[in-house]
């Protein structure tokens, strides 16, 4: 491999690790909303695919490592995937073990990564012989996936009922654009709709603030005070195999292994289901909380890594909630990538292996050390100096820019419509996975309604 490319891969992995170590700590920074737009910009910039892949792998590992910090210190999830750990983290915090909670969660992330990378690569290779069969039925599979995820959501009947209306909205906007000449007929505006879904809850909230009655009826709060207890200083490089007990190591590794085979399902749903199942027999509240957060973090990392790598290497279509979320620009980013020409087609298997190993290894070494040693200082800095609104504003600006690039001024209005609808559905308990599945399957669903 060209030494210049290797240096670029290492540099990209370091930048991603540093960037998402900071972003991951900020409360409410959903993985899709903060990783997908940056990855999309890199793809559109023309950067080498293997360098982008190194950046992406480093980003997801770093974000999953650091989104546990605000959970342990303040009971606030850094991202959606950290939400299932809040209850157990509060138990440890109640018993004065917030510092131990951070170490357990971060160590669980390390175990999940170490298990998921080789298992995902092997599983992807095993699926290659049947990839053509899977791709042949990809459109109905997306629709079936939407139904399955809807049935797994907390408002299952509402989720099922929303599939056809949301598909009609998306495909209706595309036909509108073709009719007025905003884009060439047959061109599917996709990227901006995808980003509109990811930022839907934010757009909905902003529009609600324009309603005077709604705005005046909002509850007012004073400055929130968050207290951090001083944690014990970690000396030397932390060892996850010593931080976790034998039982926690065993359960975390097993959960990660199982998570790799459930890559097509909702990552959050899988984390909650398997995480609670493996800790259900433990009665002591502290031991149960420790076991739960370690195994859930390991599982969350494993589902994210497998959900990205397996469809990328074996299929070339985003057939998982993760592939349709943070990893989507690696599959579909017109004019650079589309479903017939994307990262799957331009990067060899060895390229995927090297990018994954370099990105994951650098992120683990850098972010894990920083997370364990300086978690309190990082959390304090982010909470004090980096407003949540500033991060969301940055990504909102990117959405507007890419919406204009996708379909002109009319598409900005169309993306706002999609965002409002997506925000309402998300508030009703219909998660991103369902909405992304509908986005992909909309042409097939509408064609079968005619």
Any idea what the radius of gyration is? 21 Å
Share of helix, binned: over 70%
Strand coverage percent: under 5%
Low-confidence stretches are none
Question: Helix-strand pattern, N to C?
Answer: HHHHHHHHHHHHHHHHHHHHH
**Structural class of the helices, strands and pairings?**
mainly alpha
Summary of the model, kept short:
This protein is mainly alpha-helical. It has helices at residues 3-25, 31-44, 49-66, 69-74, 86-94, 98-127, 131-136, 138-152, 156-180, 191-198, 200-209, 212-216, 240-243, 246-261, 267-279, 285-315, 343-346, 349-385, 388-407, 409-427, 432-447.
Topology of helices and strands:
Blueprint lengths: L2 H23 L5 H14 L4 H18 L2 H6 L11 H9 L3 H30 L3 H6 L1 H15 L3 H25 L10 H8 L1 H10 L2 H5 L23 H4 L2 H16 L5 H13 L5 H31 L27 H4 L2 H37 L2 H20 L1 H19 L4 H16 L3
């Amino acid at each position: 491999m060209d030494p210049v490319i290797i240096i670029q891969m290492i540099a990209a992995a370091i930048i991603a690790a540093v960037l998402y170590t900071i972003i991951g700590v900020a409360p409410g920074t959903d993985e899709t909303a903060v990783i997908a737009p940056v990855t999309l910009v890199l793809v559109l910039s023309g950067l080498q695919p293997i360098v982008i892949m190194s950046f992406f792998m480093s980003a997801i590992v770093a974000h999953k490592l650091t989104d546990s910090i605000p959970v342990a210190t303040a009971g606030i999830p850094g991202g959606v995937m950290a939400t299932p750990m809040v209850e157990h983290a509060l138990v440890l915090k109640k018993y004065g073990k917030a510092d131990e909670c951070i170490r357990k969660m971060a160590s669980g992330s390390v175990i999940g990564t170490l298990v998921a990378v080789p298992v995902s690569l092997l599983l992807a290779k095993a699926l290659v012989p049947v990839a053509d069969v899977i791709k042949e039925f990809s459109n109905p599979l997306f629709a079936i996936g939407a139904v399955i995820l809807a049935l797994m959501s907390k408002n299952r009947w509402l989720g099922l009922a929303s599939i056809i209306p949301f598909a009609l909205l998306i495909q209706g906007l595309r036909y509108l654009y073709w009719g007025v000449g905003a884009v060439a007929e047959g061109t599917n505006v996709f990227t901006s709709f995808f980003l509109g879904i990811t930022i839907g809850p934010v757009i909905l909230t902003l529009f609600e603030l324009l309603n005077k009655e709604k705005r005046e009826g909002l509850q007012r709060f004073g400055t929130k005070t968050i207290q951090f207890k001083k944690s014990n200083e970690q000396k030397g490089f932390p060892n996850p195999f010593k931080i976790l007990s034998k039982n926690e190591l065993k359960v975390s590794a097993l959960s990660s292994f199982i998570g790799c085979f459930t890559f097509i399902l909702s990552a959050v749903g899988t984390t909650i289901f398997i995480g609670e199942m493996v800790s259900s027999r433990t009665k002591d509240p502290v031991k149960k909380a420790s076991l739960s957060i370690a195994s859930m973090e390991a599982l969350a990392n494993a589902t994210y890594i497998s959900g990205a790598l397996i469809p990328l290497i074996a299929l070339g279509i985003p057939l998982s909630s993760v592939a349709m979320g943070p990893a989507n620009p690696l599959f579909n980013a017109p004019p650079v990538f589309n479903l017939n020409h994307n990262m799957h087609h331009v990067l060899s298997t060895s390229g995927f292996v090297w990018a994954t190993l370099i990105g994951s290894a650098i992120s683990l070494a850098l972010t894990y050390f920083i997370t364990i040693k300086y978690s309190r200082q990082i959390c304090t800095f982010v909470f004090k100096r980096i407003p949540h609104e500033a991060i969301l504003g940055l990504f909102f600006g990117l959405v507007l820019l890419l919406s204009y690039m996708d379909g002109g001024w009319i598409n900005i209005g169309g993306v706002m419509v999609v965002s409002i609808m997506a925000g309402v559905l998300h508030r009703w308990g219909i998660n991103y996975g369902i909405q992304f599945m509908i986005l992909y399957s909309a042409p097939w669903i509408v064609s079968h309604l005619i």
